[in-house]
Amino acid sequence: MAVSERNTTRAESPNTALTTCAQALAKAGFNNIQTHPDQMTVTGDKRVRGQWTRTPVIVSVSASEAGSTITVRSEAAAQSLVSAASKPSDRMVSRFLEALDQIPVALAPPPPPPPSLVQSPDPPDRVEQLERLHQLLKAGALTQEEFDAEKAKLLSP
Are 91 and 82 in contact (CB under 8 A)? Predict the structure, then answer.
């Protein structure tokens, strides 16, 4: 059994990288793609020309300082029916990595602005508020004293 394994990094969160890896497997022509979020792995397989069996590929994603470390591993039971020099497990890993490189890195959304820069919604217009208070006074919902107190609050700086 021949094994091929390589690592690469992506500036994406592990969950985003996991989704990207599934897309890369599909783009590289792999079948039976399954995502296992609880194990942070994606699996797939592909039949290589000249082989009787399918070559499985396991992609593992872990967090790193750069974002995510991606480890791709392929195990081929028989290297080739055509040539001993052919290495399907190496080709499967290379095809995945080439497809992964073609997918743009998903940029994380920008962090929210600091609270001091967040603008609060405009306060209601003072004239509108005074008109509403006057209507409440006319309707008898407010007394003259209540109206005067609310008016003073509105007009104070």
Answer: no
Q: Could you tell me which residue, 10 or 122, shows the higher pLDDT?
A: 10
Cβ neighbours of residue 50 closer than 8 Å, sequence gap 6 or more: 80, 81, 82, 83, 86
Q: Which helix (H) or strand (E) element contains residue 2? A: strand 2-10
Confirm if 96 and 25 have CB atoms less than 8 A apart: yes
Rounded to an integer, the average pLDDT of 33-51 is 81
Residue 67 confidence (pLDDT) above 70:
yes
Residue 88, CB-side half-sphere exposure with 13 Å CA sphere: 23
The answer on 151 and 84 residing in a single domain is no
Asked if residue 145 is part of any domain, the answer here is: yes
In degrees rounded to 5, what are phi and psi of residue 6?
-140, 155
Range of the domain at 75: 2-102
Report the side by side order of strands in the sheet with 41-47.
2-10, 67-76, 54-64, 41-47, 31-36
